[in-house]
Amino acid sequence: MTDIRNQLFINGTWTEAQSSLRSALFNPATGEQITTVPMGGREDAQSAIEAAYDAFPAWSQTAAEERSVYLRRIYDLIVANADHLAEIMTLEQGKPVKEAKGEVLWGADFFLWYSEEAKRINGEIIPSSRTTQRILVQRYPIGVVAAITPWNFPSSMITRKLAPALAAGCTVVVKPAPETPLSAIALFDIFAQAGLPQGVANLVIGNAQEIGQEFLDNEKVRKISFTGSTAVGKYLLEQSAKQVKKVSLELGGHAPFIVFADADLDAAAEGLIYNKFQNNGQTCICANRIFVHESIQAEFMDKFIAKLKDITIGNGMRDVNVGPLIHERALAKVEDQVQDALDKGAKLISGGVRLTEGEYATGCYYAPTVLTGVTRDMHIFQEETFGPVAPFITFSNEEEVIRMANDTPYGLASYFYTRDLATTMRVADKLEYGMIGINESALGYVQAPFGGVKQSGTGREGGQHGVDDFLEYKYLNINF
Ligand code: ADP
Predict the structure, then answer these.
(1) What single-letter DSSP state applies at residue 242?
(2) Is 129 strand, coil or helix?
(3) What's the CA gap between 191 and 194, in Å, rounded?
(4) Among 412, 457, 434, 464, which Cα is nearest to 110's?
(5) CB contact at 8 A, 252 and 230
(6) Calpha distance 296→269 (Å, rounded)
(7) CA distance 37 to 22
(8) How far apart are CA 130 and CA 132, in angstroms?
(9) pLDDT digit string (tens) for 308-344?
(10) HSE (CB half, 13 Å, CA atoms) of 151?
(11) Alpha helices of 309-372 — where are they, by DSSP H?
(12) Pocket lining: 206 vs ligand 1, CB cutoff 6 Å
């Protein structure tokens, strides 16, 4: 992969960072160094913001059709380059290349969707209380957007923010996660090929604290869109108060996955395998607490374990289902949670160990793990896991399971399986989550508003709602 460009993209030009410092990037599957990338800092962030600010007047005033054509062109180019983008992602992030390609194409869909939505940012005419007045409500792009993205979905978390922002007429500065800068660079290569006007989309990679602080302090940034940890999200929200910046946050989750006694157990087991081991458990919507009715616990567990045995683990460049964890810190956190649960009385049904032999020796591999008898006092019941661990808890009635499912400060994704319509409606009403999969374990759809309640965040991404966060209202009161 010597053809990987590793520079910043500011004002339509590939550029070096101000500092000559570089940081090494490692392949989590092998532990090998892939390359080094520039350590951009405050001044680079400032230049990028400046470029976005200067580009805003012209971009925000282009016809919606014109912006739509750019977005459609980007979609076509991502699709045409999907294999290349997927390989880059697997190299730096670890997920199997088939899964990486799925993410790239899903990420591309946001450009397709918002190329259409760009043309439908409509206003309103509201009848006034006086006959000689008309109230017009128009919608305007908010201004320069700073987007901070995570490593678990290195491509789609950028496109899910950028596509609606550009559709709305905003200009953008992106700061990707330090673990996955190459996927961001590869996307920006495509934006350049699509001929986006200079300054409309800028990329700054490097020191997160410095770049983040410039986003917060610079008055030219009017909106921060963040996906990442709850701790960093809270800091950004608090600091944004100083200039009353608009903030969207997609933070941690602690998803309950409930299997009621009348559920289709095969479908639930299949759904749980997909949901739990997608991206090796490193998603904010992965099942973190699996509640199974006591009457079907044994039967469901047998079905789940049977499917678990088919999971293959290894370097994502090969045809495997699951790759490595992102880095040593992630592995250590999983180990700690499992050890804590075992110390407090959980039972280990499967896994529970690092994989260290043969091809696993130099990468970050952990065996798919199943725990039963998980209780409220264990860290795994309280904290997001972000790894391939399935903690099981039994329940005896609906009221009890809803109480346990809601017993968390998070409110992002939740899931339940039942065949009963009345149970479906009652439980859906009572779960305190932004998203609920019912007999379904996938939630990331381009048409749907993705996001959470409580401490999982604010704002929605995707669908018609996803563009709202990049717009302001302006109301005109016309007297005639
Ligand atoms: P994780 O622990 O899963 O990596 P983070 O919240 O640390 O989650 O990372 C998500 C994104 O936030 C990354 O792009 C990271 O570089 C960025 N980030 C981390 N700390 C800060 C900060 N103080 N200000 C701005 N961005 C930050």
Answers:
(1) G
(2) coil
(3) 5
(4) 464
(5) yes
(6) 12
(7) 5
(8) 5
(9) 999 999 999 999 999 999 999 999 999 999 999 999 9
(10) 24
(11) 328-343
(12) no
Ligand 1 nearest-atom number relative to CA 176: 14
CA proximity to 155, closest of 223, 78, 67: 78
178 lines ligand 1 (CB under 6 A): yes
User: How far away, in angstroms, is 317 Cα from ligand 1 center?
Assistant: 27
Looking at the chain, the whole-number percentage of residues with pLDDT higher than 70 is 99
Contact 137, 85 (CB under 8 A): no
Burial class (CB in 10 A: 0-12, 13-18, 19+), 51: buried
Instruction: Judge if the beta carbon of residue 150 lies within 6 A of ligand 1.
Output: yes
Ligand 1 mean position, distance from CA 150 (Å)? 7
Neighbour-count burial for 265-298, b at 16+ CB within 10 Å, e otherwise:
bebbbebbbebbbbbbbbbbbbbbbbbbbeebbe
Which tokens is 472 given? 């302001």
Nearest to 39 by CA among 3, 5, 8: 8
Q: What are the E-state strand segments in 68-170?
A: 124-127, 133-141, 144-148
In order of 209, 351, 425, the CA distances from 304 in angstroms are 42, 14, 26
pLDDT tens column, 372-401:
999 999 999 999 999 999 999 999 999 999
**Residue 20 CB neighbours (<10 A):** 8
Q: Name the nearest CA neighbour of 292 among 395, 366, 191.
A: 395
Hey, which residues does 370 pair with through a beta bridge?
350, 390
263 three-class SS: coil
Q: Per-residue pLDDT averaged across 97-114, rounded?
A: 98
Residue nearest ligand 1's atom 24 by CA: 212
Q: Which residues are catalytic?
A: 250, 284
With a cut of 90, say whether residue 3 has pLDDT above it: no
Report which protein residue has its CA nearest ligand 1's atom 22. 209
Tell whether ligand 1 has an atom less than 6 A from the beta carbon of residue 85. no
Distance in Å, CA 39 to ligand 1 centroid: 15
List the structure tokens of 383.
């904290």
Six-digit token pair at 191?
């934006």
Q: Which amino acid is residue 405, in one-letter code? A: A
For 376, the token pair is 């409220």
d(C-alpha 397, C-alpha 348), whole Å: 25
Give CA angle at 435 (433, 436), nearest 5°: 95
For 342, the token pair is 């075992």
At residue 172, φ and ψ (nearest 5 deg) are: -140, 145
Residue with structure tokens 């996938």?
Answer: 442
Task: State if residue 212 touches ligand 1 by the CB under 6 angstroms criterion.
Answer: yes
Local structure of 4: helix, strand or coil: coil
Q: What are φ and ψ of residue 299, in 5° steps?
A: -65, -45
